[in-house]
């Protein structure tokens, strides 16, 4: 109880809502005394040894990734088990750090941790891992788990103060939305220095005496970064794609004017192909060509891609627009494909590095109703065209 | 990538320059170069570049900056409209930060 009270008075001073962490097991015994440090486990797969420090036996890690680490990264990129890809929070030693060595703070998402240590080859530093529930720095900072309170508590529980003489922390710049540097200083005495945005610039930043150039601070969104997001974008569309494809095949089989199988070959397979192209437009072409597609709003970019795809497919299929059935089918694809690719492109705002919430809301107010209307209307027109044939 | 600009005149960022102490931390934390020093205080130079991450206002020791921060993610907005996933985004791990990300949108 005593300790809970203390925590509350500390958190009361923050202006943001903080999740009160469970400090006792609720089984009637008193909570563990404050002096016990929670050290990361030494038997985690990436730990290469240990180091005896005044705070206890700390895990040592290397800046070289093993095959096991790389495979984990690939799996996480493909969406497998990325929610449980974590390291224990607490203090780690990279190389042979001493009491003067810099302290770098990161999230307990394994990939964040790996990027950090990989960028510090040949350096001797401390790595303080915050408990962000396995979420990367930027996202965790937005949620507040990479936050002021967690940092203050982790400084105490990790034993950091016993291990170093200095009082300087280096945080990733992208952690700044979650951490109030002046409050960390006030409560712990540690001065927060925001490091560069990319881990690759860390050694230059350290060598320059914790000074970042302007370029190191700017968040770009280059092709490589956009491209790595594509597999997950596609993964999220897989289930709807399969379900809608089945529906399209069945509808075309039943409603067409020939036999079930002939209908599926003639109309159904084309419909599935068109659907796949619409998804590729929104989830692959949009990320790849993002800066070159006209329009500021992502849904406008998706709309343009969708229209180009639709016109291309109508041409390739050789739809006869002299006939009403042909006109209806062309119209259907001109509605459906842009609606889908605009919707998917709009969803890519979440992965981009420059869209604001106010902007996304403004975009969605006009785009979402239009996308839904166009999709439903397009489907109705397509069904009509099947019946007309 | 200077051409990657989102919608104009929507960012909620504002600043009371009379409260500014001129520490310059907002220039450090801003990922889009929105601020610049103007003599002894900072000022907003490029509001349209703001992505409302909230780093500047959280780190402003004098409370001179205000912004309605949030994640610019359509999936998150849809999820919150539908009351799904606690209104969180699901667009994937922006992974690699740590000093460090190459990308950073939202995610779960």
Blueprint of the fold:
The complex is a heterodimer of chains A (389) and B (108).
Chain A: H1 2-12, E1 47-53, E2 56-61, H2 67-77, E3 90-94, E4 103-107, H3 110-118, E5 125-130, H4 137-143, H5 148-157, H6 160-163, E6 168-171, H7 181-188, E7 191-194, H8 202-207, H9 223-227, H10 230-255, H11 260-289, H12 298-317, H13 324-347, H14 357-388
Parallel strand pairs in A: 2-3, 4-5, 6-7
Antiparallel strand pairs in A: 1-2, 3-5
Chain B: E1 14-15, H1 25-29, E2 35-38, E3 41-44, H2 55-59, E4 65-66, H3 74-82
Antiparallel strand pairs in B: 1-4, 2-3
Described by the principal axes of the CA atoms, the overall outline of chain A is: elongated
Number of strands of chain B: 4
Largest interface: A-B, 83 and 59 residues
Order of helices and strands of chain A: HEEHEEHEHHHEHEHHHHHHH
Can you count the beta strands of chain A? Answer: 7
Radius of gyration of chain B: 15 Å
Supply the CATH architecture of the largest domain in chain B: 2-Layer Sandwich
* Shape, principal axes of CA atoms of chain B: elongated
Spatial order of the strands in the main sheet of chain B?
1-4
Binned strand content of chain B: 5-15%
Within the largest sheet of chain A, what's the order of strands? 1-2-3-5-4
Q: Mean pLDDT of chain B, nearest integer? A: 79
The H-and-E topology of chain B, N to C, reads as: EHEEHEH
Biggest beta sheet summary of chain B? 2 strands, antiparallel
- Report the uncertain regions of chain A: 1-34
What percent strand of chain A?
A: 5-15%
CATH class of the largest domain in chain B: Alpha Beta
Low-confidence stretches of chain B: 90-108
Number of helices of chain A: 14
Binned, the helix content of chain B reads: 10-25%
Task: Supply Rg of chain A.
Answer: 27 Å
């Amino acid at each position: 109880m005593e300790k809970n009270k203390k925590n509350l008075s500390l958190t009361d001073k923050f202006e943001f809502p903080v999740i009160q962490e469970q400090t006792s097991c609720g089984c009637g015994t008193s909570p563990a005394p404050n002096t016990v440090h929670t050290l990361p486990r030494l038997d985690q797969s990436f730990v290469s040894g240990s180091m005896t420090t005044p705070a206890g036996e700390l895990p040592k890690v290397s800046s070289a990734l093993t095959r096991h680490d790389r495979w984990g990264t690939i799996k996480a990129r493909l969406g497998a088990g990325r929610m449980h890809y974590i390291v224990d929070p607490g203090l780690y030693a990279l190389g042979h750090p001493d009491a003067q060595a810099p302290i770098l703070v990161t999230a307990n998402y394994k990939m964040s941790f790996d990027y950090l240590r990989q960028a510090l080859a040949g350096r001797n530093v401390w790595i303080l891992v915050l408990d962000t529930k396995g979420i990367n720095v930027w996202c965790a900072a937005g949620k507040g788990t990479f936050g002021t309170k967690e940092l203050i508590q982790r400084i105490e529980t990790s034993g950091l103060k016993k291990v170093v003489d200095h009082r300087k922390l280096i945080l990733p710049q992208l952690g700044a939305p979650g951490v109030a540097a002046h409050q960390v200083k006030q409560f712990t005495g540690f001065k927060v220095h925001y490091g560069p945005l990319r881990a690759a610039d860390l050694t230059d930043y350290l060598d320059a005496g914790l000074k970042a150039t302007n370029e190191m601070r700017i968040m770009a969104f280059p092709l490589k970064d956009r491209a790595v997001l594509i597999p997950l974008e596609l993964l999220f569309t897989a289930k709807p794609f399969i379900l809608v494809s089945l529906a399209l095949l069945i509808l075309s089989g039943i409603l067409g004017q020939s036999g079930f199988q002939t209908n599926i070959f003639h109309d159904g397979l084309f419909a599935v192909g068109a659907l796949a192209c619409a998804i590729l437009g929104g989830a692959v072409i949009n990320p790849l060509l993002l800066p070159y597609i006209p329009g500021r709003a992502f849904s406008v970019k998706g709309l343009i891609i969708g229209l180009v795809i639709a016109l291309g497919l109508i041409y390739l299929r050789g739809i006869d627009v002299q006939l009403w059935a042909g006109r209806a089918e062309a119209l259907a694809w001109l509605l459906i494909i842009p609606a889908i690719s605009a919707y998917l492109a709009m969803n890519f705002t979440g992965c981009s590095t420059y869209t604001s919430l106010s902007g996304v809301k403004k975009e969605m107010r006009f785009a979402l109703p239009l996308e839904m209307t166009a999709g439903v209307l397009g489907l109705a027109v397509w069904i009509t065209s099947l019946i007309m044939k | 990538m200077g051409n990657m600009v989102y919608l104009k005149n929507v960012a909620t960022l504002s600043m009371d320059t009379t409260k500014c102490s001129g520490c310059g931390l907002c220039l450090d934390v801003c990922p889009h170069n929105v601020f610049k020093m103007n003599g002894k205080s900072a000022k907003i130079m490029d509001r349209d570049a703001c992505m409302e991450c909230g780093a500047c206002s959280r780190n402003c020791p004098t409370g001179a900056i205000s912004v309605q921060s949030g994640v610019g993610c359509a999936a998150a907005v849809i999820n919150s409209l539908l009351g799904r996933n606690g209104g969180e985004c699901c667009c994937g791990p922006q992974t690699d930060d740590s000093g460090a990300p190459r990308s950073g949108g939202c995610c779960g």
